[in-house]
Amino acid sequence: MELNKLRDFAQARKFDQFRTNAWADLRDKFTKHNLNFSQRSARIFEYMCQAESPLVLSDEKISFSRSKRNIPFYFDTKDIKKEFQPKQGEVFDVIHNITPNYNIVLNLGLQNRLDFCKEKLKTTLTQEQRSFYKDVIVCINAILELTERYAVASIEAGNHETAAILRRVPKFPANSFREALQSLRIVSAAFYLCDNYQIGFGRTDQYLWRFYKTDIDKGVLTRDEAFNLLKEFFISLNKDTDLYRGVQQGDNGQSMMLGGCTREGKNGINDLTYLILEVSKDLKLIDPKINLRIDSNTPVELLKLGCELTRVGLGFPQYSNDEVVIPALVKKGYALEDARDYTVAACWEFIIPGSGLDVVNQGAVSFPAAVDQSFDKLVKKNTFDLNHFNKLIAENIKSQVKNILDKRSVKLLPSPFMSIFMNDALEKGADITKCAKYRNVGIHGAGISNAVDAYCVILDAYETKGIGGLKEIYKAKCRNFMNFEELRNELVNSHQKCGNNEEKSNIVIKRLFDYFADAAEALSTKDCRIRPGSGSAQFYIWLVNKPNDSVIESQVKATADGRLENSPFASSLAPSPDVKINGLISVLKSFSNIDYSRIMNGGPIIVEFSPSVFKSEDGITKLANVIQFFVKLGNQQLQLNLLDVAQLEDAVLHPELHRNLIVRVWGWSGYFCELASEYQQQIINRHRYEL
User: In 3-state terms, what secondary structure has residue 674?
Assistant: First the structure.
């Protein structure tokens, strides 16, 4: 099938016609055999590999498509309780939101790992180690058997070239760029067969560079041929995205990091960095989500190419500033070489490929709740003192962090298949959940703009009207501003606003994040450091409209900044909806007041542009200059998006005409018409900038 037709076929979700459901329920069988979770994980992976029906096209160069829509039940809550005996507040989940070390399969191959485990079984081991190696062997045999069936199917389809490659990888080390891509496709898809999810690709231009350069230098591959191989690889990543779990469709974790420096601190930008951006720009698909590491020395040509990718409306690349991120990771306890090798998780959280099992999204602090609840306490006591107000806010934020740690302490379940691709797990004879180098916890900081705006309103009201002014605001927000429309209009359209680079609001931005960092540091331990972040993830909706009882974060109704009950917060670092903003440069300067050496879990400044910005080459150049200014200011992360409101509003009314319309939701991109209405409306209401 011609590549553009294959793209359209995948984008239209037409691969679903080749799928069936896996109706089996394996819980009783696994319980009868007294299998622990590691054994269950290995056996469900084996079952899924055996259940897959290979689908190979006669002319495809990168093969693999899911044929089962679901993973059967294979454990119960009672099984988890029996084996792990959870403490109060502990929540167990399968491994997710991490990035493995793909160099292991590309440079060693699975046969090497299989032989290693078999040799280990000949030595003196503990019973636990012996069981672990046996589980790994089950997994490797399962994926190799599935790959062999794909090779047979390729021969039956008349695709002998692909069959030959499938008989080499992932069993053996990749010897070419095409083999590397094929090995990567099979292994990355297989993670979902063992029930792990939101598994990223990491620094693709780094670990694929050797294969690309060797083939180019030998003359066995041209740049155009590599372009088409990458194009087909990217299309393959979109065949199954409707099967991947997340908060919304598209939230699947297929993130890819480009650029930056090497582990040795040298420039890591290469021709693949550019080529991958070019392929993404050409395809216009939601996966993979592209991230770009930059610094003061990043070539402007690369920044312009990133801006051209933004122009096609995919919501990426997302930019991370190495000059801020790497020192912050080192300060938090990550080794320098590992910090230089960072990538991002499903959204923006900084993680270390192959070494990090950090739970980077354990929950979120609600800055608006901290301000609102502290305000209410003082007003009810008929008093107000700024120092007391600040103290209450700091205490509230710390109590929110502690609440998350106490009531949602996420513990990751064993995965012998994932452990194959994590550093030192096989060498230590232990599942990665027991031996990962980094196991820290990330907590988002949500609603900062609304919190800052409310804080400034409260302070101004007290300074001009005293306690009576505060009582009036309290009364109005308790009634959701019903019959207080004039006051609400004043609150929304006056006072200092977060994002306008005004002294008072800038001080409050830094103050609230400093309180968050203080709390995180106070509650950290030697073995688990708390990583505070500036992203909101889905919590810009969930903190005002609780979706279910699993959300333990503080909820708020109407707030002192004039925000109405159930109205979403701004997403991550962006001005509050509906307020007047001086311009993009003011926004960048405002958020540069955050101490990113302490607020280091990630969370971007989010900027939406009107289509007119991209109508000329001059617009691309100006936008590249904005990115350079972002780096110069010392900001951490930046997300630039194209937002055509008229098109989005028409898509709400006529979704059948806009099935392929892509938007950035928070840390990921998805199809607009597949989003829930509350997310659609929040995107439509975002600020839009001109240059």
Answer: helix
Q: Estimate to the nearest angstrom the gap between the alpha carbon of 471 and the chain centroid.
A: 41
Burial class (CB in 10 A: 0-12, 13-18, 19+), 62: buried
* CA separation for the pair 348, 325 (Å, rounded): 11
Nearest to 685 by CA among 657, 649, 641: 649
pLDDT recorded at residue 608 = 85
- 292: enclosing H helix or E strand: strand 289-294
pLDDT digits (tens, 9 = 90+) for 287-330: 899 999 999 999 999 999 999 999 988 888 999 999 999 999 99
CA 248/CA 370 separation, integer angstroms: 27
Q: 606: which residues sit within 8 A by CB, 6+ positions away?
A: 570, 571, 572, 573, 574, 639, 641, 664, 686
Tell me the one-letter amino acid at 351.
Answer: I
Identity of residue 101: N
User: What's the one-letter identity of residue 392?
Assistant: L
Collapsed DSSP state (helix, strand, coil) of residue 91: strand
Residue among 207, 148, 218 at smallest CA distance from 181: 207
> H helices within 431-502, ranges in order?
432-435, 448-478, 485-493
Burial of 25 (0-12, 13-18, 19+ CB in 10 A): exposed
Query: Measured between alpha carbons, how far is 572 from 497 in angstroms, rounded to an integer?
Result: 16
Q: Are 304 and 621 in contact (CB under 8 A)?
A: yes
In this structure, the number of other CB atoms found within 10 A of the CB of residue 483 comes to: 9
List the one residue out of 578, 576, 569 whose CA is nearest residue 539. 569
Question: Which residue type occupies 400?
Answer: Q
Kindly state the average pLDDT of the residues 38-66. Answer: 96
Are the beta carbons of 444 and 601 closer than 8 angstroms? Answer: yes
- The one-letter amino acid code at 31 reads T
Question: Are the C-beta atoms of residues 132 and 427 closer than 8 Å to each other?
Answer: no
Provide the 3-class DSSP secondary structure of residue 670: strand
Query: How many residues in the chain?
Result: 691
Parallel/antiparallel/unpaired status of strands 441-446 and 359-366: parallel
Q: Residue 590 and residue 585: Cα distance in Å, rounded?
A: 9
Across 385-420, b (16+ Cβ under 10 Å) vs e yields eeeebbebbbebbbebbebbbeebbbebbbbbbbbb
Q: Where is 6: in which H helix or E strand?
A: helix 3-11
Beta bridge partners of 411: 92
* Mean confidence (pLDDT) of the chain: 93
Classify residue 333 by its DSSP letter.
T
Give SS3 for 222: coil
Tell me the DSSP string of 587-615.
Answer: HHHHHTTS-TTT--S---EEEEE-GGGGS
Closest CA to 541 of 255, 252, 251, 247: 247
Q: Are 369 and 556 in contact (CB under 8 A)?
A: yes
Q: pLDDT tens digits for 243-276?
A: 876 655 566 778 999 999 999 999 999 999 999 9
